[in-house]
Amino acid sequence: MKTGHYALPRLSFRFIPIWRRHFLVWKKVAATSIIGHLADPIIYLLGLGYGLGSLLPELGGTSYMVFLAAGTVCYGTMNSASFEALYSGFSRMHEQRTWDAILNTPVTLDDVVLAEILWAASKSLLSGAAVLLVIWLLGLSHSPLTLWLIPLALLVGLCFAAIGLIMTALAPSYDFFMYYFTLVITPMMLLCGVFFPVTQLPPVWQTVSAVLPLTHAVDIARPLMNGTLPPGVLLHAGVLFGYAVAGFYVSMVLFRRRLSQ
Amino acid sequence: MTAVLSAQNLYKSYAGQAVVNNVSLAINRGECFGLLGPNGAGKTTTLRLLLGLIAPDSGELSLLGRAVPQHAREARLRVGVVPQIDNLDPDFSVAENLMVYGRYFGMHDAEIEARIPALLDFANLAHKRDVKIPTLSGGMKRRLTLARALVNDPDVIFLDEPTTGLDPQARHLIWQRLRELAAQGKTLLLTTHFMDEAERLCHRLAILDQGRMIAQDSPRALIAQHIEPQVVEVFGEGVALWAQDHAAHYAKRFEVTGETAFCYVDDAQPLLAHLQGHGGLRYLYRPANLEDVFLKLTGRELRE
């Protein structure tokens, strides 16, 4: 590996036309995409919320449905960014060679990767907004603090887009992503307090949970749903931001290596 | 004349294997320069180095007065690229592809919009403006890729095998367009392994083999320098035996490949007279061309 691969990413506004390109593609399927973003949380909340909720009438002072809604915001935004960064990102880099086309212009790989992260985070923002709308429509929360779920969705999106791009940079084919979803995303969903409190886990798994980014997202989202300010919000946001920055840097190094071949 | 593109002692290796080995070239404004070579000769890697997409292990590069790869981004503002593998945006229409691509150059939408009709006319795609990419033929996609490379009105255009996979009609149209661009004073750098393409289009060309530049000159000069002026291709049953007995007598140089004997001669008349009296063998008499030079310099064995 060359030393140049380890240089810090150089940020510029040249990511904007690339982000606009991704947006224009999305606009063509916007209706389907928005329906999907709305249907997914509705199905989860109504299915699990009513089903499990009838067995667990109260959890941490709220109904199970409200408890689950906070988890769903985080889990949904994580999934949106992950799918975009892995499958769509790989398609743009490898299958359609969109990156190759862009890199022949006065745009650098740093701009392309930044645009990928910001675009995937934009999809998370959309997903988070859709879940929030469902929360309001189902009357699960009336607190104006729930508006903070929107910037949270963006932050969770940045975090999981950046981590996901590491996988994209390493992937030989789409099949590779199954490992990531099976070994990273699914355990994350189960260990981070989306469906049940982390305190239900054995102590050793609670320790693991404490370093996973989704836990910190859930720790911000759940108090917001209940109308209280999340304790330690800066720490939680800092962890998510830290994962985003580290993921951006590592994926950048790996993309430089991959595309210099 | 000023060189718009120059490379000195360019060297690039992958895993200890030299892919571009001590290549030097200088291309002048308004010139159409060809890079020829068998598969794996290092043509595409050379283009990627010249564009600053990869860094050389050693050597000096300059493109439009800028050091590459250090200032490649600024240089690429004035460069257009037609890649070997199609990478048009399949989700977009023909016109949207041009619009989105122009934005990468920092152009304003109104400025791009104003250029689109002329670009579509140039590519004979005015009637396909709002059509999606997957419905276009291979030739149309290539022409759109060429139009896309012109969206920023570049001074230098890189073309990596611009006509590979096209039918003869589509190739001729591309050639015509490339000649028009050269006539406008654009500098063209193209790779190809079609010798007729190189001979027709290029003012000068370089032949690469295993990363080394083994010849560089105008097509005519290369033919005059490396090959006897006349070629008689003799083929048919028993050609090997015939060549063994007679070829050396009539030809300065000959090669037998499969069923064909290539005889290189200064004066073909004695050989033709001999062949007319020799039933069973057929022949083709033609002037020497670039392919003869290419095969002489790079050999006839397959490169895979």
Describe the secondary structure blueprint for this structure.
The complex is a heterodimer of chains A (261) and B (304).
Chain A: H1 15-27, H2 30-55, H3 64-95, H4 98-103, H5 109-137, H6 149-170, H7 177-191, H8 203-211, H9 213-225, H10 233-259
Helix pairs in contact in A: 1-5, 2-3, 2-5, 3-5, 3-6, 3-9, 5-6, 5-10, 6-9, 6-10, 9-10
Chain B: E1 3-14, E2 17-28, E3 32-36, H1 43-50, E4 58-63, E5 66-67, H2 72-76, E6 79-82, H3 94-104, H4 109-122, H5 138-149, E7 156-160, H6 168-183, E8 187-192, H7 195-201, E9 204-209, E10 212-217, H8 219-226, E11 230-235, H9 239-250, E12 253-257, E13 260-265, H10 269-276, E14 282-287, H11 290-298
Helix pairs in contact in B: 3-4, 8-11
Quick tags:
heterodimer, A: 261 residues, mainly alpha, globular, B: 304 residues, alpha/beta, Rossmann fold, 3 domains, six-stranded mixed sheet, four-stranded antiparallel sheet, 11 helices, 36% helix
Question: Any overview of this molecule?
Answer:
The complex is a heterodimer of chains A (261) and B (304). Chain A has helices at residues 15-27, 30-55, 64-95, 98-103, 109-137, 149-170, 177-191, 203-211, 213-225, 233-259. Chain A has one domain (29-259). In chain A, α3 (64-95) runs parallel beside α6 (149-170). Chain A has 261 residues and is mainly α. The model of chain A has no long low-confidence stretch (mean pLDDT 94). Chain B is of the alpha/beta class and 304 residues long. Chain B has three domains: 1-78 and 157-219, P-loop containing nucleotide triphosphate hydrolases (Rossmann fold); 86-153, no CATH class; 228-287. Chain B contains eleven helices and 14 strands. Chain B has helices at 43-50, 72-76, 94-104, 109-122, 138-149, 168-183, 195-201, 219-226, 239-250, 269-276, 290-298; strands spanning 3-14, 17-28, 32-36, 58-63, 66-67, 79-82, 156-160, 187-192, 204-209, 212-217, 230-235, 253-257, 260-265, 282-287. Chain B has a six-stranded mixed β-sheet, with helices on both faces. In chain B, α8 packs across α11 (290-298). The longest helix of chain B has 16 residues, at 168-183. Chain B is globular and about 70 Å long. Chain B starts with a strand and ends in a 6-residue tail after the last helix.
